[in-house]
Amino acid sequence: MVTSPKRVEFVQLALPLRTDKLKLLVVIVLFLLVAVSDPGMSSDSIDRVVAVVNQDIITESELRQEVAQTQRELRAKGQAIPPLADLKVNLLESMIVHLIQIQRIEFLNIKVADEMVMAVVNDIARNNQLSLTQLQVEIERSGLGFEEYVEDIRDQIAIRRLVNQEVARKITVTDQEIDEFLIQNRDTLPKRPTELDLAHILIAVPADAIEEDIAIRENRIRRIQDEISDGLAFSDAAMLYSDSPDGPEGGRLGWRLNADLPALFVTAVSELEVGMVSSVIRSPRGFHIVQLLNRRGGEENLVEQSRVRHILLVPNVVSGETQIRQRLERIRQRILAGAPFSEMAKLHSQDQQSRARGGDLGWLSPGDRDGEFEKVASELAVGEISTVVQTGAGFHLLQLDARRTRNMSARIKRSHARQQVRTRKVNEKYEEWLGEIRDIAYIEYRVAQDDL
To answer: What's the confidence (pLDDT) of residue 301?
Structure first.
């Protein structure tokens, strides 16, 4: 992926030249011009430019790197690798579209703070039951540098913000569209998904372990399983023996949707009663045993709702992230000093829909807002003001007004329908928007497809 494209720069030196030196210089310049423009020259001697995209270029070495990385990823997933010629053409097009989006991000001065990037990287590690160091090892084992991986995450976050700003924010879903979706999909709408509260113990097996080492580790987890059967608390066993980062917390994974858990875990606990421990599970990471702490789901959807107000500020070309954070912090201090949150929202919030209501978003159910927004709101006490919160929409201050529990079966179905319709409309508009920004970009292919 092109994260730091090379730029073409020309430097002119105004120096007096003798005639003979001038002739020599002309010969050198002509040679260089021929060398750069001749696609037949060896790629070992010159890194050819394969495409020009506005003010940036994509080189042959960058394309080769992208091809190699994609081939590694496909092999790791056990998927078929397309013919090399087709793969190069498709990846070059993807790189061009990616680069155009990065250029748009730079033009709009969309910045992603290091803290935000590392928070996402840490979430990825945690969701894969890895420490940050273990994640780095896995990334580098796949052939990708960890710093490059982190910058790729930064690009993905920035593109998500760009799409939210340029596309998603402009999408609306009407009640009529929701009603039509519910009618057309009444037989396929999901019930409330099952959630599981699990704890696990991992005995890690290195990727290059020999059979003898694997057998030793399998025996170790079976001994742990026996100790638990004899009365050792699962949480104590996790703290004593588990190689997982959550071992010190008793191996607790917390409540997660089935879809967010490894399929091996879901299958292993499918027939268990609450409190029971699974048989030994073998995964690419090693050997596991899992305890089912609780299970919930079904038709009745008791949901805890939050009544939240917010003040939203969005970075732009004039005011970057730092200025927006500072401005919100000043507003927060005024609120803490006694200014009503609702009045500050009416004066400052850039959310046009809630601004007139003093920032009141109404009763929010899980899934209604960005994950970070919900996380912060869920941790607030009634009446408490949050610190500055960053989401895909911008930067917020939150105030929790109240909480309540409601049976939301009907509303959850409508919320699911709304999300499905919105996702479809955003995807359609995103493809249209990509075509528009690509059409106005200057794109020059320097190498024919057959010569890539």
So the answer is: 58
